[in-house]
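REQUEST ID: PR-0412
SUBMITTED BY: lab tech R.K.
PRIORITY: routine
TASK: structure prediction, single protein chain
INPUT:
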Amino acid sequence: MLAEVLLEKIRNDRVHGATELVIMAIEGIRQTARSLESEDQSELRHIIQNLVVSLATSRSSIVALSNLLEQLLQAFTRVETEDFKMLVDQSCEDILVLIQKARSRAVKNMLGLIKADDVVMTHSISSTVKNVFLELKRAQTRNHIIVTESRPGDEGKILAEFLAEIEIATTYITEAQIDLWMPEADMVVVGADAVLADGSVLNKCGTNLMALSANYHNVPVYVCAETFKQSANNHYELEKMDPNELKVNIAGVSVSNTYFEKVPVDLITAWVN
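STATUS: complete
OUTPUT:
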């Protein structure tokens, strides 16, 4: 039961970034293993490995999910054990430590590029970028963050609330205002759901528009994302979500609700990892 709930939770999540989704998946796998009552090691291995495979293929645009869950599967197959639950527990912990170290490194490197009074524009919500903003606050800088609404899902509201709570100056705008506000920005900082082999990235729709505007106004675009989000190739699939999320019900009108898009490498100043 826990496995089915976890799989649906990951499939249907619309507001968390890639790193948070991976953490949710890893913690869910560990909790599922702990909850299983069977003492049959082969049965336990079969249930958990099937869950990991299903999760790894549940979100086509989120490379981190497939990358790290593949590492988890390799950890399961490398070791013969009489206590598979313990192996799952330790392997999940190892992946969570890897995630934290990679995120801390990306945050530290991004902080080295932001001046104390820079105005930063961002899109959607990334836990890694949130951590950058949190560290700016701890350093008592005078930064101003321009946050886009990020429909559908409105993750921008969640980020704006977070920034208000930690008392960082914030301006909230619709995506339609990106080009209007871009001259006010010193840089664009966004996360990524995937970094392709050629350096292009996949992120929430609207990121490419932001990068195009930044390019026009000579504003640098930084993608702050951990190394485990890198794909070994340039293949990608763009997730299409339920059109009803856009709340348009007009006879004869088709509705598109594609969540992610590709941002070409030539619009990106640097991948900060």
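NOTES: The chain has a mean pLDDT of 95.
REVIEWED BY: pending
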